[in-house]
């Protein structure tokens, strides 16, 4: 009689995240048993796909056709990074239980009777190409239950970062910034604060032809424009109480445009956009967790030294740490969260926190394309 193979004590998932910054895909191999990241690959999108995904964030012609093609493009881009990740880590595809695939957000309109969110990804094509089960569309169920569908990372942050002794806040600086509030008494909060890299990236692309402002050096060469900063901070979103989430639907260069003086120097605008990110985060933390003494930063914006300095100045009593200090490099946290969410789906465990998203209750998040 054939004996069964020994049970693999590891539970391997791949998390695939491509965020609002549109800098490409982060893929991690995640062991849900030990909650460890075992490998990471980042790949930019092909330039034409990136341009089209950016364009699809705004209304345009023949959108259904273009969105379907872009969803195919995202699936192929994801399949490529999965192949790289499996090769790099020597992992047979049969040992991966599922891919937790975010897709590319092009619209985020939660709330109300007709709320929806769109993450472009052809999950069926990804399952065909990767020959691994795909868990995707991870936000829609929370919105169907009356929630924001975002942020989803606070539950993962709660599982990963120790907040038993003191209240801890986790700050993700992606295209948009979001905070997770991990109270020592077990309560977890979280919401999107506002724009982080999406405006700074767009502005430096327009004026310097660069993808992003490395270390915030260009911003540091300018002066903050106090009137512009005050006008931007008057945006009603910042004062809304949670639950709340946002995206490029609101925060795009067209949002900035009406506030710009014609003679504003581009580097001064960049300095002001960096200050806007720092102020909106600091204000949100002060409003919702004034007692926080530890802030753990992650996401690509955590590599922006000027931004981190500005945050430090606005939050003098708070120790600024990096997720890397807690064993998770800054560009792996979000992808690991989506691997963890796939694991939650496979185990039929809820992935959302109703206290964060505002959903009517805990829900199993995601839709499955079997291998
Ligand atoms: N060295 C750096 N200096 C400044 N900004 C950086 C640096 N590295 C990455 N970034 C920023 O981080 C962004 C990517 O962050 P990421 O966490 O992947 O965001 P998203 O989840 O929206 O994709 C880039 O677009 C860029 O703006
Ligand atoms: Mg990214």
TrEMBL record:
Pathway: Cell wall biogenesis; peptidoglycan recycling; Amino-sugar metabolism; 1,6-anhydro-N-acetylmuramate degradation. ATP binds at residues 19-26. Pfam families: AnmK. It comes from the Bacteria. One of its GO terms (molecular function) is ATP binding. Keywords: ATP-binding, Carbohydrate metabolism, Kinase, Nucleotide-binding, Transferase. Its EC number is 2.7.1.170. It is an enzyme of class 2 (transferase). GO terms for biological process: 1,6-anhydro-N-acetyl-beta-muramic acid catabolic process; amino sugar metabolic process; peptidoglycan turnover. It catalyses: 1,6-anhydro-N-acetyl-beta-muramate + ATP + H2O = N-acetyl-D-muramate 6-phosphate + ADP + H(+). Catalyzes the specific phosphorylation of 1,6-anhydro-N-acetylmuramic acid (anhMurNAc) with the simultaneous cleavage of the 1,6-anhydro ring, generating MurNAc-6-P. Is required for the utilization of anhMurNAc either imported from the medium or derived from its own cell wall murein, and thus plays a role in cell wall recycling. NCBIfam families: PRK09585.1-3. Belongs to the anhydro-N-acetylmuramic acid kinase family. This is Anhydro-N-acetylmuramic acid kinase. It comes from Roseateles puraquae. The lineage of its organism: Bacteria, Pseudomonadati, Pseudomonadota, Betaproteobacteria, Burkholderiales.
């Amino acid at each position: 009689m054939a004996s069964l193979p020994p049970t693999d004590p590891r539970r391997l998932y791949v998390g695939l995240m491509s965020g609002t910054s549109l800098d490409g895909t982060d893929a991690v191999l995640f062991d849900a048993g030990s909650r460890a990241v075992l490998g990471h690959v980042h790949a930019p999108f092909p330039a034409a796909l990136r341009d089209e995904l950016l364009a699809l964030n705004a209304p345009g012609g023949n959108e259904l056709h273009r969105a379907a093609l872009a969803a195919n493009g995202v699936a192929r881009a994801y399949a490529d990074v999965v192949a790289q990740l499996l090769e790099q880590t020597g992992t047979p595809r049969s040992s991966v239980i599922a891919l937790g695939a975010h897709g590319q957000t092009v619209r985020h309109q939660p709330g109300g009777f007709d709320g929806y969110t769109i993450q472009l990804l052809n999950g069926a094509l990804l399952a065909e190409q990767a020959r691994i089960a795909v868990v995707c569309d991870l936000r829609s169920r929370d919105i169907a239950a009356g929630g924001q569908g975002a942020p989803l990372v606070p539950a993962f942050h709660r599982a990963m970062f120790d907040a038993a002794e003191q209240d801890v806040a986790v700050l993700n600086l992606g295209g948009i910034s979001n905070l997770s509030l991990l109270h020592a008494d077990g309560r977890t909060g979280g919401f999107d604060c506002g724009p982080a890299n999406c405006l700074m990236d767009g502005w430096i692309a327009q004026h310097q032809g660069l993808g992003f402002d490395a270390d915030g050096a260009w911003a540091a060469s300018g002066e903050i424009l106090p009137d512009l900063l005050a006008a931007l901070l008057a945006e009603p979103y910042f004062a809304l109480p949670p639950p709340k989430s946002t995206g490029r639907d609101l925060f795009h260069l067209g949002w900035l445009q009406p506030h710009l003086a014609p003679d504003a120097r581009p580097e001064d605008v960049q300095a002001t956009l960096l200050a806007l990110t720092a102020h909106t985060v600091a204000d949100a933390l002060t409003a919702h967790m004034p007692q926080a003494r530890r802030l753990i930063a992650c996401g690509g914006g955590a590599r922006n030294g000027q931004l981190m300095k500005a945050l430090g100045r606005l939050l003098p009593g708070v120790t600024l740490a990096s997720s890397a200090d807690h064993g998770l490099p800054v560009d792996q946290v979000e992808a690991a969260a989506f691997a963890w969410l796939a694991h939650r789906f496979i185990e039929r465990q809820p992935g959302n926190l109703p206290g964060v998203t505002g959903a009517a209750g805990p829900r199993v998040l995601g839709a499955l394309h079997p291998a």
